[in-house]
Structure formats: C-alpha cells, structure tokens
Design brief:
Largest sheet: none
Order of helices and strands: HHH
Radius of gyration: 13 Å
Structural class: mainly alpha
Distance between the termini: 36 Å
Shape: globular
Helix content: over 70%
Number of strands: 0
Number of helices: 3
Length: about 90
C-alpha cells in the first residue's frame, strides 16, 4: 500500500466513522481516535466485501460499496460503544 493509499484510507475511515456516529441514536462514549480506527477497519472490510460481491468497481461513484462501509461502521461503533459502557 502506498502513502497515498494509507492517507486516503485514514481520511475515508474518519468520514465513515463520523457518519456512523451521526446515524446511531444517542451518545456514544468513545474517543474520536477510536471512531476513526473503527471507520478505517469498516472501510477496508467494506471494500473487501464489495469485491467479493462483485460491486467494488462500478461506473461513477461506488454507492453500494460506500453503503456497505457505512453499515459496517455503524455496527462497529455500536459494538465498541456498548463494550466501553461495561
């Protein structure tokens, strides 16, 4: 992975993590850094899952891949936030 790929993964992961926190109802008591980490993992897993489903590369914006990434980030943030409450 190149430096551009790493930087773009961090930026996209941060955006996806923040979107996940906005979608989830209530307050999540996790740090911004943890949100970004969950977003990065969700973005990477979402890209991998989209490639398995055959929807990774489409003409224009890859809406299905982005939707998969956001859903995974919502699940990840809710799991991490639920674990931190205990």
């Amino acid at each position: 992975m190149t430096a551009d790929g790493i930087i773009s993964a961090i930026v996209i992961g941060a955006i996806i993590g923040v979107l996940a926190r906005l979608i989830l109802p209530g307050r999540q008591k996790i740090s911004v850094l943890l949100t970004i980490v969950v977003g990065i993992v969700a973005a990477l897993l979402g890209t991998w899952l989209a490639s398995l489903l055959g929807v990774k590369t489409t003409d224009g914006i890859d809406w299905i891949e982005i939707l998969i990434q956001i859903v995974l980030a919502v699940i990840g943030v809710s799991l991490v936030a639920g674990r931190s409450r205990r």
